[in-house]
Amino acid sequence: MNPTAVAPSSRAAQLQTRLRAARSSSDELFRVVRPTALYDRPIPERHRIIFYLGHLEAFDWNLLREPLGLSSSDPELDKLFAFGIDPVEAGLPADQPKDWPSVEQVREYDRAVRQRLDSALDTILAKDATLSCLEYGRFLEVAIEHRLMHAETLCYMLHQLPVDRKLAPSLDPPPVAPGRRQRSVEIPAGTAKLGLARSEDGPFGWDNEFEEQHVEVPAFAIDAHNVTNGDYLRFVNDGGYERRNLWSDSGWRWIASQGNRAPAFWIPDSDSWRCRGMFAEIPLPIEWPVYVSHDEASAYARWAGKELPNEAEWHRAAYGTPGGAERSYPWGESAPTARHGNFDFARWDPVAGGSYPEGVSAFGVADLVGNGWEWTRTRFAPFPGFRAFSFYPGYSADFFDGKHFVMKGGSPRTAACLLRRSFRNWFQPHYPYVYAKFRCVEH
Ligand SMILES: [Fe+2]
């Protein structure tokens, strides 16, 4: 959204509406956790679920408190819930459930934070519709998108929670898949326009989205469809996890240390596999895209005699057109809807590849946005002209360590506003719980 496109008062009202909607999305997530499971730690490297119940409100509070002129009533909880964990090389956390406040205390903290922030926002808006004290609304965009990103990453965590620790909401049947035929799509040489141009009144973007880059991309060929569970099963059955030459040094060390023989979403079932869905374990759906770590995606690509796309190649396949102009989304300029892909919290699991013919790119590449992020072979690094946000200096800069890879697109649990072309996601190469799929390229 371009802030200049609407009057300040209606823009401020839109931000308040979006903040309320983002809160509903995160509240919905905690409702699928059985109350007895709130102190579980589904992923050993991460915090217990209870941390996230406090973190979303603590983040907003720590960000907005000073600019809104408020004083803290619980500095201890503000600090306790301030930061998550990115488990690069540190040991596993050893805290116990008794080290955390009670659910009632956390819920009361959340309620008080929301109430104080909302009433301060109402007061500010009555005096200053431009939200100048909140960097002209940018702080609210940060709060909204931070919450929505957690609404997704928290799902990765809840996905690993045993199904009997969750309460399934009612689920819609999947769309009817028209069937897919894998093929290679030739993308001619051209320019990829990555990132966003910095301007006073331009659209919101995180620090790593700036500045705009024009990258010349030589011709390449890309898979029209994602690699599916069925495709990946052939790699597994061909000894993919036993063949040293398919893996990077660190990838090999990782699968050896974990004893991995298949993706984390697969569950061995005598001589076959089942799949860990969000609310049920089901026979391996061979038409779904396979969710894997970067190391696993890279090993498959090597096995297939191909490689992962780099960020600019992926961007060109998604947003480029034969005429040279770029689109805002693979399907064109219209805002994302349920016809274009599997995203924006509509579903909890992927669907069969090729289910959204209206979402294909100008070059005919399917499912680029939605149904799972897509791994690239590009290491996460700043674009030239990068400047960290002064109020959140570590958001990206803490991860410019050569140990994270860029993902593009979006998953079933990615909010629509995060599907913008310039948005960049990133993860470590062996983190196995991300909703991340892939496709391969050839040169
Ligand atoms: Fe956070």
Give your account of this protein's structure:
The chain is of the alpha+beta class and 443 residues long. The protein contains ten helices and twelve strands. The chain has helices at residues 8-31, 49-64, 75-80, 103-127, 138-159, 229-237, 249-258, 294-303, 311-319, 394-397, and strands at 184-187, 190-194, 213-217, 220-223, 266-269, 272-276, 281-283, 373-379, 405-408, 425-427, 436-437, 441-442. α1 (8-31) runs parallel beside α5 (138-159) and α2 (49-64) packs parallel to α4. The radius of gyration is 22 Å and the shape is globular.
Blueprint of the fold:
Layout: H1 8-31, H2 49-64, H3 75-80, H4 103-127, H5 138-159, E1 184-187, E2 190-194, E3 213-217, E4 220-223, H6 229-237, H7 249-258, E5 266-269, E6 272-276, E7 281-283, H8 294-303, H9 311-319, E8 373-379, H10 394-397, E9 405-408, E10 425-427, E11 436-437, E12 441-442
Helix pairs in contact: 1-5, 2-4, 2-5
The protein binds fe (ii) ion.
> In this structure, how is the largest beta sheet organized?
4 strands, mixed
* Extended strand count: 12
What is the CA-atom radius of gyration, in angstroms? 22 Å
Unreliable parts: none
Bound small molecules, deduplicated: fe (ii) ion
CA-CA gap between termini: 37 Å
**Sheet with the most strands: spatial strand order:** 10-9-8-11
The number of helices is 10
Strand content: 5-15%
- Output the structural class: alpha+beta
The dominant shape is globular
The string of secondary-structure elements, in order, is HHHHHEEEEHHEEEHHEHEEEE
**Helical proportion?**
25-40%
Mean pLDDT: 94
